[in-house]
Write a structure and sequence with these properties.
homodimer, Arc Repressor Mutant, subunit A, three-stranded antiparallel beta sheet, DNA-binding
DNA sequence: GCCTATCAAAGTGCATGCAATTCCTGCGCA
DNA sequence: TGCGCAGGAATTGCATGCACTTTGATAGGC
């Protein structure tokens, strides 16, 4: 349909990438907080695979910087430092600059519609601290990257956007996604006009406004059980595609 | 010694990362040409590990874009398209721009010495088509990235530099590394002077001059046996650190 | 009461085994 | 000579098993 080619840079087979996607979502929606333990056994049990597969998935996520792996130790959700966050945003701005340069004035009608639809979805899922709206805000940028049709750019922007999302959950107060949504709309408009410079400055200030926040101490929630947390994500992983809200599922 | 921190972004344990390093070198030195098959068994046999580990290493390399993995198929060394190459260089220029910005005028004496030593090594290993000199030229950029102390930047620059190196082996005629070496020296000088703009333009034209070449048809060499090709790399992997020239080893 | 040694439980590191799939070689046929 | 097609060899997909490491709780010494 949309010209979205070759996105799978790695993503071995099926099972592994399914688990990766599920965990990625669980992490950026903060169902799994930074520091949360991810034992191979539990993961395997939850997703109905052996440790081997769970392990492989953890390896991938570690390569993406979402998970920390230390020899002989339980894998944990990554806890990026403040400096990491700064670096990540620096890199991100450069990468998104490339995206903008390639896209300005070159969006097809279908793509414009897709972008608008996405922002509409953001609008619907509003509510600053709602994890789903945070995910959607991040995925707006990933959607843009996809439209460049450059596998490398897609991968890097996706990765770093997820990482930034993760760090935000650590360092930022619940961000009012309302303004972010308006900024997204402005970016689309400028992209359509082909006003590259305008988009650049919009994107820059957009990312800055998202990044430049006060620091809030992280509160690790140890109480809930991993198996419970992952239940909705595992369900979705088994049956078909992305469910809109994770709390919707919850069967067995 | 040198201020080179936290480089292991993923790199699971020991064995896996050792194999990754060995394969990475074999690939960028063109001992393994694009399209070369990498069966798990052979890899495991060559490096004295089980398929499990070899498989994991292949997964990592696939995530880095050096290896292509398709379900139920033998892994092969990646064969980037021409468009991939262009995209990669675009991204690379942006990333190296960040490196330069962070480093201009801020190099320590030790770092300057290290850079000079590296270029001296390039000089010694001269000879345009010598795979080792190609590797060293690539690693100059990676060395620069390391000096930023930004794990993200280090990882991305390393990855993309290797990928560019791989694409060059496909699309570029044997590049006279002599000029590259001089350009490297000029970059060091400008970095030391802190002349950011100068470094930027140097780096830009440097990468352009490396990237902008005519297209040569790839000639897949099917003859040699994987086990033979990898012999020197496996040896080095077992015993200690980087050997200067791969053909040096070759024991059993 | 507090610190430390010890030991079982939990978890990872890695190899191996079996099933399923792909590959490839040789054969029949046009 | 060229082409399709079987069937065995090669190879991957995945689970499981065992050894080793870490963890954390408990008991003993100070």
């Amino acid at each position: 349909m949309a010209p979205r080619a070759a996105s799978k840079t790695a993503e071995t087979s099926d099972k592994v990438s399914v688990i990766c996607r599920a965990l990625r979502r669980a992490i950026i929606e903060q169902a799994l907080e930074p520091g949360a333990k991810l034992p191979e056994d539990s993961l395997g049990e939850r997703f109905g695979v052996s440790r081997t597969i769970a392990r492989h998935a953890l390896g991938q996520l570690a390569a993406e910087g979402l998970v920390e792996l230390r020899r002989n130790r339980i894998a944990v959700v990554a806890t990026p430092s403040w400096q990491d966050a700064r670096d990540a945003f620096d890199v991100r701005i450069q990468l998104e600059r490339l995206v903008v340069r390639q896209l300005a004035g070159k969006l097809t009608k279908a793509q414009i519609a897709e972008l608008n639809a996405h922002v509409d979805a953001e609008d619907r899922a509003r509510g600053g601290s709602d994890p789903v709206s945070i995910r959607l805000a991040t995925e707006f940028h990933i959607l843009l990257a996809h439209m460049t049709n450059s596998p490398i750019l897609i991968r890097y922007v996706s990765e770093i956007a997820y990482r930034c999302c993760l760090t935000l959950s650590l360092f930022s107060r619940p961000h009012s996604s309302e303004c972010a949504i308006n900024e997204h709309r402005a970016i689309i408009a400028a992209l359509v006009r082909g006003d590259e410079n305008k988009v650049m400055s919009l994107m820059h200030s957009h990312l800055d406004s998202v990044a430049g926040r006060a620091l809030v101490a992280p509160v690790p929630q140890r109480g809930r059980d991993l198996l419970d947390i992952l239940a909705p994500y595992a369900e979705e992983a088994e049956s078909g595609r992305v469910v809109k809200l994770p709390k919707a599922a919850r069967g067995r």
